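Here is one chain, start to finish.
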Amino acid sequence: MNSIKIEIAGEQDSEVIREIYQTAFPEEESAMVAKLAVDLLAEKTVPEILSLVAREIETTLGHVAFSPVKVEYNESCKASIVTPLAVHPEHQQKKVGSRLIEFGMKKLKEAGTLRSGISFWLAGFDPQGLV
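Its structure:
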């Protein structure tokens, strides 16, 4: 698993991303979540959706999308939500999802996107040093 590479996903990854969601989610949810993940690849937003895949050699192991949201409180800030996220069942429990999230958080930090790590802590992911 040390040879995992995290890369920007593109529309050319649509079919493999669809397959990952269809195998990772229960049958009653898989088609809807797979469609969302694939649709986000073509969605044009400002700032852009950050869509990532984890690959090991020629095999795509997982996918995540960080979608921009606008937060209005005392002042406007840039933020992103993590949805959807899936790892092929054969590669679950190997930290693939954690690596996708960690890489995405680093990219968002580089882009100046402000966010809180609280939802990651609740999910069992420790964003130490990333927030």
